[in-house]
TrEMBL record:
Keywords, ordered alphabetically: Amino-acid transport, Signal, Transport
Annotated Leucine-binding protein domain residues: 42-377
Protein name (record): ABC transporter substrate-binding protein
Keyword Ligase: no
CDD domains membership: PBP1_ABC_RPA1789-like
Species the sequence originates in: Blastochloris tepida
SUPFAM superfamilies: Periplasmic binding protein-like I
Length: 397
């Protein structure tokens, strides 16, 4: 697809979004002159992402998404004649580097706001920096601890790990499967989701009969899975985790001849998981954003135009497969744009207040309705339950 065609797709996406209750949110109308050290005619937006390293499958599409839409907006004349200047640092998945770059964005780059934090670990490391500096920060990471308890300057766009547990347990309950085994990664996301599953399982009448863990560098989980296979009464497996670990778990499950239903998390919601797991992924279920099944959504679904438009423009520009992780960046960028547009000021407190007032914003992850007590704004209906069939995502419901 040509650059002109890509621009047209982006324009259609923005036009479709204007038909929603968030027309002002998606209008190309940011107030100009943000960022204390910005040049005239320049709006500075900072980002710290894990574009390389073990979480690159998350951070790379996030970086590409931010660059794609900043470029298209600038090509269309910018924002009130001003251009967006993205200042992006790659932390490689290292929390210490993330905190260092966060400090640089505040002290040297004088950004108006920050989008990013690819992983829960890097996000949590940066939160104190932006809270102390009183700069709005919208994270792309999944842990519920990012927004609970509520932090004045911090928001997020992905569904939480607690919601993932609830969506999985909801489906297990429908199938009368009450005894599960958990095998979780020891990374920040895996541990957090495991903890959330343990907190909410009783609400759905689910008993966790056995648990195992694996490290981020482990290349074989057959020993842990063998233990789970022998757990008394076990009826299903749940794998909180991200990165390559869940794909290895999936392959090992099939290699051991385990036929129990296997549930993964939204931490693997990209086609790369299916590619890594191969045929073993068949039948795996997971909660994920509507973006992965954009073409299969009914025309009546309010997310279809947004999700399909983003998918089309992203894949045309990058020649790669869309993932929900890039969608988190898309949602965050446009939520910020809407807030800046309404604030009409470079005052950080006013920008923060307008992010918090986001209502009816239709994004790739769902329909966002934020409040002073909810800095994510999504409920469980925003999650779709998917199953891998014939090497692709399909809707279970």
């Amino acid at each position: 697809m040509t650059a002109r065609a890509t621009t047209t797709v982006t324009a259609r996406l923005l036009a479709a979004a204007r038909l929603t209750a968030t027309a002002s949110t998606l209008a190309l109308g940011l107030a100009a002159g943000f960022g204390g050290a910005a040049q005239a005619g320049e709006i500075r937006i900072g980002s710290v992402l894990s574009a390389t390293g073990p979480a690159a499958f998350l951070g790379d599409p996030e970086e590409k998404t931010l660059k794609l839409y900043a470029e298209e907006i600038n090509k269309a004349g910018g924002i009130n004649g001003d251009t967006i200047k993205l200042i992006i640092y790659d932390d490689g998945g290292d929390a210490d580097k993330a905190r260092t770059f966060a400090t640089r964005l505040v002290e040297e780059d004088k950004v108006a706001a920050v989008l990013g934090g690819t992983t829960s670990g890097t996000t949590m490391a940066m939160i104190p920096v932006f809270e102390d500096a009183e700069i709005p920060f919208v994270s792309f990471a999944g842990a519920v601890g990012i927004v609970e308890p509520t932090k004045k300057w911090v928001f997020k766009t992905p569904h939480t790990d607690r919601m993932a547990c609830e969506k999985i347990f909801e489906d297990l309950k429908k199938q009368n499967l009450a005894k599960v085994g958990i095998i979780s990664g020891t990374d920040g996301f895996g541990k957090s989701m495991r903890d959330q599953c343990v907190k909410v399982n009783a609400k759905y009448g689910i008993e966790i009969v056995a648990e195992e863990t694996y490290g981020p560098r482990d290349s074989d989980m057959t020993a842990q899975l063998t233990n789970l296979k022998g757990a008394p009464g076990i009826q299903a497996l749940v794998n909180p985790g991200m990165g390559q670990g869940p794909a290895i778990v999936t392959r090992n499950v099939r290699q051991l001849g385990i036929t129990l239903p296997l549930y993964q998390s939204h931490g693997v919601a990209s086609k790369s998981f299916i590619e890594l797991a191969g045929d073993a992924a068949e039948g795996v279920r997971l909660p994920a954003a509507a973006l992965l099944v954009a073409e299969k959504l009914p025309d009546s679904d309010p997310q279809k135009a947004i999700a399909l438009g983003y998918k089309t423009s992203y894949e045309a520009a990058t020649k790669g497969q869309v993932s929900t992780f890039g969608g988190h960046a898309f949602d965050a960028l446009f939520i910020l744009k809407g807030a800046l547009d309404r604030a009409k000021s470079s005052d950080a407190a006013r920008i923060r207040d307008e992010i918090e007032k986001t209502q009816g914003f239709i994004g790739t992850a769902g329909i966002f309705n934020m409040t002073p007590d909810d800095h994510m704004g999504l409920d469980l209906t925003a999650f779709k339950l998917l199953e891998v069939r014939s090497g692709d995502w399909t809707l279970v419901e």
